[in-house]
Each structure stands twice: as C-alpha cells, then as structure tokens.
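Technical note accompanying the year-one report. For the benefit of new consortium partners, we illustrate the data format agreed upon in the data management plan: each record pairs a sequence with a structure-token string. No post-processing was applied to the example shown here.
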Amino acid sequence: MSSTRPVQLSPFQKEKLEYYFRFLSPNEDGYLEKSSINRLMARIQDFTGWDEDSPRAKECREVHEAFFELLFEKAKEEEGTVGKVDLKNWLFMWSSILPGVMSMHNLPVWLRLMPQLLFKIVDRRRQDYLTANDLEIFYKEMVHLDPQQAREIAINAYQQMTDGGRYPLNADSYEQLFANFLIGRTPYGPGRYIFGCFEHEVQPFQLITPAPEPDDDVVIEVKKPISGRRPSRQLSYTN
C-alpha cells in the first residue's frame, strides 16, 4: 500500500483528471494498458508529423512508457491488478501525489516532463510559443472538439492563458498552467484550458448581505460566471 496519505480530490479536479485519463487512449473497456501507448503515439505522430525515429517522438514514447510503468505499479500495489489501470486507480494515484504540492517543482521528475512534452505537441510549428490558432487546432484534432467550439474556446483560452496578451504562451508559462490544471481545486484558473473547456458552470461569487427590504433587490457580484462544454466522455481514441 502507498505510504502517502491521499488527499480528497475536489469534484473539478476529478473532472479534469478524468479527461487527462481519456486523452491517454484507454481501451474500449476503460483501461490504460501497454497498447494504449501505441495508440497515443500514433495520434501524436499523426498530429505533429514527427517521424517514429525522431528525437521528439522517442522522448515522448520513453516518458510515457515510464509513466505507464508507474501507473501499473501503483495499481498492482493498491488492488493487485496487473498491466492495466482504470479510472479509479488513476484518481487514487493523483490523490496520493498531490498532497502538499504547490508547483511543478514539488512533483516527481518524470511528471515535470509531461507539460514540456505536451507543449511540444501543441507547438507543432516549432515556434517556441503558442497562439490561439495553435490551441484551436489542438482542441479540434487531438481533443476532438467540433470546429466552431474549438475556435471559440481557443480564443477564450488564449486570453486567460496570456492574461489578455500581456505574457507570451511559451514553455515556461505552459508549465505553470499545467500545474494549475493539476492542483487547482476550483474552475477559476486558466489551467482548465489545457485540454479545452469542461461541462462545468462557474457560479458568480456573491457577498453576504442583510435580507433586502421590499424595494431592495441588490446583489453585489464580484466575478462573472464562466461556462463551457467539453466533448462527450464516450469518445474513443482507438485507431
């Protein structure tokens, strides 16, 4: 059994991590297995144009192979399953890893490589920065959002990820966004856009005020709601 005391993941963390799980190409029975790596790499190489023997493709495969081996090890320790990981195992692993984590520097070395790899995948033009168009193409072709939705979400995502264009969306800032994706317990952070938007409505904050008089119907709103959709969880990524 794991020696780390698990943390209770928030509903939104579970929602985000479930989408990450499905991005990694589980089989039709909902398990990540060794063949998932081949399906994932086929999708990545088709999207990026990387040759199978290219340094980037080799690095991507090696990191994911190490990642999957850790997943299999954790699943075997916790439930005795061999060579496969379901969503329950996946969420339990993250509940064991995330306690006390404040940034990517607090995470294992292998996990720090994940946002770097994902950035390289999205940055298939090799410009060392991302644009709203890069996000749109990634959402459409890798996350499988419909074209109109991908465009709308990419525009909103880029605005939030760059603070309205004040900061470049480069590898360093993308790593911070990925940390927010993992650590953020509420839907307010820009990391929610790593894999597009989610079926999650953010209610406005309201100050607690005394009960209104008959003619007083004032509510002080601090933040506007943000809402979005994600594609069906039933999407299959098998080739």
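Partners are asked to follow this layout when depositing records. DSSP finds eight helices and no strands in the chain.
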